[in-house]
Amino acid sequence: MIRKVLVPVRGDGKGDGVLAHAAAVARHHKAHIEVVHCRSRPQDLMPFGVHLPEYLRKQIVEQSYKVADQEEAGLRAELKVLASKLNLNVSEDAIGKAETVSFVEQAGRQIDVIKQHGRLADMIVVAKPDRDRNLGHNTLKAALFHSGRPVLMCPPTPISLKKLGVKVTIAWNGSSEAARALSQCKSVLRAADTVWILSNGADSGPGTSTSDLIYYLDLHGISARLEKFTSSKNIGKELLIASTNLGADMMIMGAYGDSHERETIFGGNTQAVVDNAELPVLLNH
What distance in Å separates the CA atoms of residue 1 and residue 248, rounded to the nearest whole number? Predict the structure, then answer.
């Protein structure tokens, strides 16, 4: 079951869109949202390998605390406004409650904060990386490779749905990454009204065929339909097109069968999805 959704924020202007997607997930699963903000530490702002006079170091420390306090106060105020708009109750104690949100402030690097808080979340919700502004890549990478949890990547377009995960597609090729994503996301599939399996039939064999998958899902009480698509050189884009044509509000897929660095440099199915997705994609590595 989805009971805790983690939303890491960093004051980059994308928090409202990410929280709106998280709220749609929370409504569908009656879950709690934990918004965690990484508070910058003075030592992280010091120039590396440069000796600074003590008075200058003191100024940097004082200024960093001041900026961090202002940023935290601004984010807390913004969260209250957004929570009200999204009909979420701000509550530090979410036990026995649904559709609630809380704010956590932790000093440290963004990567470390996501690792520490993400491992005890049922889902992590992040913004789609912005190549033009060079934002969000490390956040997505940290969530995918260091939390062990499913990561919902949200497009920048506003969400109009009250619930998210009602019509879901599964990208299936019989790989261990796809199988792991399937296993981690069964709660999402059980809660969906409609589930489609997307396959070009090229990579699955005995034991991992689409008919085997349909039978496996049926054992778990999940009814799914097969939707074949014609393979091209860019399977990632074809998966997105097929999901959009079906009217899906979410696509589930295993992420980075090759290394993140290799796919980022040379391209790959996951990187094509990350670069081109215009619908929420639930990734799992």
Answer: 21
pLDDT of residue 207: 80
Which uninterrupted H or E stretch holds 277? none
Return all residues near 192 (Cβ < 8 A) that are at least 6 apart.
165, 166, 167, 168, 222
Residues with Cβ within 8 Å of residue 135, at least 6 apart in sequence? 12, 14, 127, 129
Q: Which residue has the tokens 């997505």?
A: 140
The candidate with the shortest Cα–Cα distance to 7, out of 124, 164, 130, 142, is: 124
CA distance 164 to 243: 14
In a domain, 161, yes or no: no
Same domain? For 102 and 213 the reply is no
Residue-wise pLDDT for 62-89, tens only, equals 777 887 788 788 888 888 888 888 889 8
In a domain, 162, yes or no: no
Indicate the length of the chain as a whole number: 285
Classify residue 159: in a domain, yes or no. no
> Which tens digits make up the pLDDT trace of 166-183?
999 999 999 899 999 999
Work out whether the CA dihedral 245, 246, 252, 254 comes out positive or negative.
negative
Per DSSP, the three-state class of 279 is: coil
What is the residue range of 194's domain?
167-284
Which residue has tokens 């295993």?
A: 254
Query: What's the rounded Cα separation, in Å, for the pair 127 and 44?
Result: 24
Burial of 53 (0-12, 13-18, 19+ CB in 10 A): exposed
From CA 143, how far away is CA 112, in angstroms rounded? Answer: 10
